[in-house]
Amino acid sequence: MTDLVFVDTNVLLYALDETNLKKQAVARRWREELWRSRRGRISFQVLQEFYVNVAQKWPAFASEARTEIKDLIAWQPVRADYGILERSWKIMDRFQISFWDAMIVAAAQSASCRFLLTEDLQPNQDLDGVIVVNPFRTEPAELLNA
């Protein structure tokens, strides 16, 4: 199976967060497996949220975050455009989720992702073809080797 996996900001943040070592280890496993399989995808929204959060929570890691963002360009970030915006409004209205979450779902759809890796939405929910996967309830091997 070669389904693409869209990664939400929270997964990238947990990979750096030393206050929850269990989630940090899981987030790092996901990140490593998605790099290895080349199936990870993101958006510029995710990259922006990642940088702002790192710079605010852990200013000493801002430079490291910039380096990681430069590396993550290989994941073909989706750019927000009018099509993404319009699709996100429809998703927001249909599924009663926040605008920002709807933007993530719209970007995942635009990147032809089958899965959305996040803890912010209902696990296993099908959002018009994008399945929500909680990274802390599902191991990478369960999804990537299925």
Fill in the keyword field for this structure.
54% helix; Rossmann fold; 146 residues; single chain; five-stranded mixed β-sheet; alpha/beta
Helix-strand layout with pairing:
Layout: E1 4-7, H1 9-14, H2 21-37, E2 40-41, H3 44-57, H4 62-72, H5 82-95, H6 99-110, E3 113-117, E4 126-127, E5 130-133, H7 140-144
Parallel strand pairs: 1-2, 1-3, 3-5
Antiparallel strand pairs: 4-5
Helix pairs in contact: 3-4, 5-6
Task: Examine the secondary-structure arrangement and name the CATH architecture.
Answer: 3-Layer(aba) Sandwich
- Number-wise, the strands total 5
* Secondary-structure content class: alpha/beta
User: Any idea of the CATH topology?
Assistant: Rossmann fold
Annotation field: number of helices = 7
- Spatial order of the strands in the main sheet? 2-1-3-5-4
Proportion of residues in helical segments: 40-55%
**Rg, nearest Å:** 14 Å
- How many domains make up the coordinates? 1
Spans where pLDDT lies below 50 across 5 or more residues: none
| Mean pLDDT over the full residue set | 95
